[in-house]
Amino acid sequence: MSKNNVMIRVQNVVKHFGALKALDNVSLDVYDGEKLVIIGPSGSGKSTLLRALNRLETVDSGRIFVDGAQINDQQTDINKVREEIGMVFQSFNLFPHKTVLENVNLAQMVVRKRSRREATEISRALLKKVFISEKEDQYPSKLSGGQQQRVAIARALAMKPKVMLFDEPTSALDPETIGEVLDVMKNLALDGMTMIVVTHEMGFAREVADRVIFMDCGAILEEGPPEHFFTNPSQERTRLFLNQIL
Amino acid sequence: MAQVTDSKSPKTVIAVTDGSAIPTRRDLGLFTAWRVSFVGALLIVIALVGFKPDPYWEILKFLPDGIVVTFQVTVMSILLALVIGLFTGLGRLSNNKIINGIASVYVEVVRGIPLLVQLFYIYFALGRIVNVPPLTSAVVAMAVCYGAYMGEIFRAGIESIHKGQREAARSLGMTSVQTMRYVILPQAFKTILPPIGNEFVALLKDSSLVSILAVSDLLRRGREFAAQSFTYFETYTMVALMYLIITLFLSKLISIMEERIGVEK
Question: From the centroid of its chain, how far is CA A192?
Answer without folding.
Answer: 14
